[in-house]
Amino acid sequence: MADDQEYINLKVKAQDNEEIHFKIKKTTQFKKLMETYCQRNGLSMANVRFMFDGDRIQETQTPKELSLENNDEIDVAIEQVGGSL
To answer: Which of 24, 40, 67, 77 could disulfide-link to 49, CB 3.0 to 4.6 Å?
Structure first.
């Protein structure tokens, strides 16, 4: 049997339900995906949390470490700073 596919497709979903799809290597640290997502959306890495199944994803973790599967969904939460509108 062939080894696991080298790449995985992941769906990153923001609080407004906007989705961005990423194709990364299973051994790539999430930092690369996080930085790319933030750059595309004009966000600061310091203000954004990435989570899978309610657990925060660390920059040094990889899809393989978290046993992610093709088309799994990563949730993005923007940390709100300051008061209300």
So the answer is: 77
Q: Which of 36, 62, 34, 55 is nearest to 46 (CA)?
A: 34
Question: In this structure, are residues 10 and 33 in contact, taking their beta carbons and an 8 Å threshold?
Answer: yes
- Under the banding of pLDDT at 50, 70 and 90, the label for residue 2 is very low
Residue by residue, DSSP assigns 5-26 as: PSEEEEEEE-TT--EEEEEEET
* Helix, strand, or coil (residue 30): helix
As a whole number, mean pLDDT of residues 33-47 equals 95
Local confidence band at 85 (pLDDT 50, 70, 90 cut-offs): low
Report which of 41, 42, 4 is spatially closest to residue 22, judged by C-alpha positions: 41
Distance (Å, rounded) from C-alpha 62 to C-alpha 72? 13
pLDDT the model gives residue 1: 37
Count of residues making up the chain: 85
